[in-house]
Specification:
It is a single chain. The chain has 192 residues and is mainly α. The protein is built from five helices and no strands. Helix 1 packs antiparallel against helix 2, helix 1 packs parallel to helix 3 and helix 4 packs antiparallel against helix 5.
Length: 192
């Protein structure tokens, strides 16, 4: 509403100046006549083709009334003034069209930006998952290496306990220690 009020205010001010200025000030009338392009361009930019053409038509009607009222007794000059009216419409359509294309381009860019942002976020998440998977793989390789390094000495220790425990009787306290060593070795073997 504020934008439409601004355009209407410009139209009103220029029209009042046009009607209130004496025809003796021909150069001022030319300035006012060209000043009508300001609200037309503004309306075309803000409200696209419909707004620009509507403003141009309102101004055309007001300008025709002005021509009849103030320049009717100068037919050759009045004709030049009438020739300006199609230009109002051409400018309104052109600016409205360009405004529409600009809005569509901006919307397309915003959509593309949103898609790029989503793709960037997905890529970062995939990269984080890949880093996590790489860490897990490294941890798995490390664990396998440690397990292998622990099993080899355990096998040697287990073999040595078996050999040491063969010649010991059940009543010998070393037999009990050999049994404890075998149990603990089996537990460590399961753990690795």
């Amino acid at each position: 509403l504020l934008k439409a009020a601004l355009i209407a205010g410009l139209v009103l001010v220029i029209t009042v100046l046009h009607f209130k200025t004496s025809v003796e000030h021909h150069s001022l009338h030319l300035v006012y006549q060209r000043s009508y392009y300001i609200p037309i361009v503004l309306a075309g930019y803000l409200f696209e083709i419909v707004g620009g053409v509507a403003t141009a038509l309102v101004l055309a009607v007001l300008f025709v009334i002005h021509i009849w009222h103030d320049w009717g007794h100068h037919p050759e000059y009045a004709f030049q003034q009438y020739a300006e009216i199609p230009m109002y419409l051409v400018i309104a359509v052109l600016v409205g069209y360009l405004s529409r294309m600009q809005r569509k381009t901006r919307q397309n860019l915003e959509r593309a930006g949103g898609k790029l942002e989503t793709a960037y976020r997905d890529l970062n998440e995939a990269f984080d998952k890949l880093r996590h998977a790489d860490r897990l793989a490294s941890l798995g390789r490390l664990s396998a290496g440690i397990a292998h390094e622990i099993r080899n000495p355990l096998a040697s220790i287990q073999g040595a306990v078996e050999i040491l425990g063969r010649g010991v009787g059940k009543e010998d306290p070393r037999s009990e220690f050999a049994g404890i060593a075998r149990t603990e070795i089996a537990r460590l073997e399961r753990l690795t």
